[in-house]
Amino acid sequence: MINTIDHIINIDLASKINMNQSISIKKNDTNSHKFIINIFNNSVAYDLTSSTSRIYFKKADGNKVFLDCILDSTTVNKLSVLLTTQALTYAGLVASEITIYGTSGEILTSVTFNFTVSDVIRDDVAIESVSEFTALTDALAVVTTIANKADKTYVDTNLDIVNTQLAETAQQSNTNATQITSLASGSPKGTYTTLALLQSAYPTGDTNIYLVTFDGNWYYWNNSNWVSGGLYQSTEWLDVITVQNQTWGVV
């Protein structure tokens, strides 16, 4: 932490100002300059203990800034204010004044005093050195390349996931379509005593439904396997399982 530069300013509310010397501060200095302001009334210390004070700035570009002043606890008339960057962002003459606010709504403003903000050789925005600029360009190129590769990996990974999901959705849609087609045909195309016999008869499936008497379920092909659609309860099947010694095309 650096020591602040203190600028002593004496203000007499009877319109007298005495600065020890003209004040010039470099542009964009931050929290490094402090105004020490002594307030008088006709050369007598002005009591500020029951009031609050602010300093107002009007910069050379016309913009305005205000900062709260702090009253020194060892005196009744000494104020201090640490200048922030915003007060020093524009080079040129800065007009300043102190405003004192009383507890009953009173407002008292000092005469205006000025200080100068000077330009600096340093530029916190521009990069002046060619070698430094080249090094920065190379570094940015590397970072950009890494970022592009990372983005491509991310996109490729998520694209694979999406393609898988689409394929699964399409397969399910085909399965549903096959099941709907089979159901629409009405009665089973044939009957088998076991699922194994059905699988043997149609190892690659077809679009019909078949009844397996062992478990009483009807089966449909889902593009890869014979799948149970549940217990078959048509009149014909009830006849098969209730009428003894009567066959119904059972394999």
Characterise the protein shown here.
This protein is an alpha+beta fold. It has two domains: 5-118, Immunoglobulin-like, CATH 2.60.40.3350; 186-251. The chain has helices at residues 130-184, 195-201, 235-242; strands at 5-12, 16-19, 24-26, 33-41, 44-45, 52-58, 64-68, 70-71, 78-82, 92-101, 107-109, 113-118, 190-192, 210-212, 217-221, 226-231. A hairpin with a 4-residue loop joins β15 (217-221) and β16. The protein starts with a strand and ends in a 9-residue tail after the last helix. The model is unreliable at 127-134 and 235-251 (pLDDT under 50).
Q: Return residue spans where pLDDT drops below 50 for at least 5 consecutive residues.
A: 127-134, 235-251
CATH class of the largest domain: Mainly Beta
Helix content: 25-40%
Query: What gross morphology would you assign?
Result: rod-shaped
Our estimate of the beta-strand percent is: 25-35%
Structural class from helices and strands? alpha+beta
Note the run of SSEs as H and E.
EEEEEEEEEEEEHEHEEEH
The domain count comes to 2
Summarize the structure.
The chain has 251 residues and is an alpha+beta fold. The protein has helices spanning 130-184, 195-201, 235-242, and strands at residues 5-12, 16-19, 24-26, 33-41, 44-45, 52-58, 64-68, 70-71, 78-82, 92-101, 107-109, 113-118, 190-192, 210-212, 217-221, 226-231.
List the helices and strands and how they pair.
Blueprint lengths: L4 E8 L3 E4 L4 E3 L6 E9 L2 E2 L6 E7 L5 E5 L1 E2 L6 E5 L9 E10 L5 E3 L3 E6 L11 H55 L5 E3 L2 H7 L8 E3 L4 E5 L4 E6 L3 H8 L9
Parallel strand pairs: 1-4, 3-12, 13-14
Antiparallel strand pairs: 1-2, 4-5, 4-9, 6-7, 6-10, 8-9, 10-11, 10-12, 14-15, 15-16
